[in-house]
Design a protein that fits this description.
Ureidogly_lyase (chains A, B); 1 helix; mainly beta; about 0% helix; homodimer; about 50% strand; EC 3.5.1.116 (chains A, B); lyase (chains A, B); 16 strands; Jelly Rolls; four-stranded mixed sheet; UAH_cupin (chains A, B)
Chain lengths: ~160, ~160
């Protein structure tokens, strides 16, 4: 069994796969008579031929070591995950390698970090670590098929940092 | 000074103004090999002539009684507020009355509740109650003017439930 080691989620490391939505640095604009900072336009939302919708995922807890045996991608749109309960997510992503996932990279999100996975990027399923978590999801809505799954011939075990 | 009394935020009471995004009832679909419930397509996202973006608002705490003296609306799109820190929001909304806000209704959100204010609906600014709060915001992005403000001639004081 090949192992992968979790890394802290950063915007730079995640850039090939999507966006990290977080308060970093000064806000782009101060609004509401000085009472609110707006960190503006942090994610590339792409709903392709559908419309953009907001859903809510209620997911059971995962633990380490975490077996990564399935990756999926959405050919028609991006998908953002916004944690309501500050539960960190195991974020598994991979470059495409001839229509299959290449070698994955695995990150652990921190409280306050949301992610937006770009259209057609291979990723693991939503995996809250250590506790159940609810996540608001912003993604493509339509009746078109928008899920491609790939079961890994050689699964990985994800280990702690 | 006229007073308004906060009511608990419910989907039914908020329906004339927008959507409450919350886990209510059974999920619409079970995904990820039984590990996740999807509550599907809970909000009408409408970005009009722009695109839909994701931003982050970092807002200072408000207290009761809360002075409601300004309402605003966005003619080009809906605006969703998703709390990252479980801080309740004072949600002030009003029907339109000849191009101005009519009598407001005021709600207090509960932890786990997000809201989506529909396009062109009068509302107060983001107002976390009792603590600062960060909120992921899903709204219209463009260079077009998308803010109409109205200062109330007779402000309201919002009181506890």
């Amino acid at each position: 069994m090949t192992t992968l080691t979790l890394r802290p989620l950063t915007a730079e490391a995640f850039a090939p796969y999507g966006d990290v939505i977080e308060c970093s640095g000064a806000p782009d604009k101060i609004i509401n008579q000085g009472m609110c900072g707006r960190h503006h336009d942090l994610a590339l939302v792409d709903s392709g031929p559908g419309r953009t919708g907001i859903s809510l995922f209620d997911a059971k807890a995962r633990a380490l070591p975490y077996r990564l045996d399935l990756m999926e991608r959405h050919p028609l749109g991006s998908q953002a995950f916004i944690p309501l309960d500050n539960v960190p997510m195991i974020v598994s992503v991979a470059p495409d390698a001839d229509g299959k996932p290449g070698t994955p990279e695995v990150f652990l999100s921190q409280p306050g970090q949301s992610i937006n996975i770009h259209r057609n990027v291979w990723h693991g399923v939503l995996a809250p670590l250590g506790a159940p978590g609810r996540y608001v999801v912003v993604d493509h809505i339509s009746d078109l098929p928008n899920l491609e799954e790939h079961w890994l011939e050689d699964p990985y075990d994800i280990l702690d940092q």
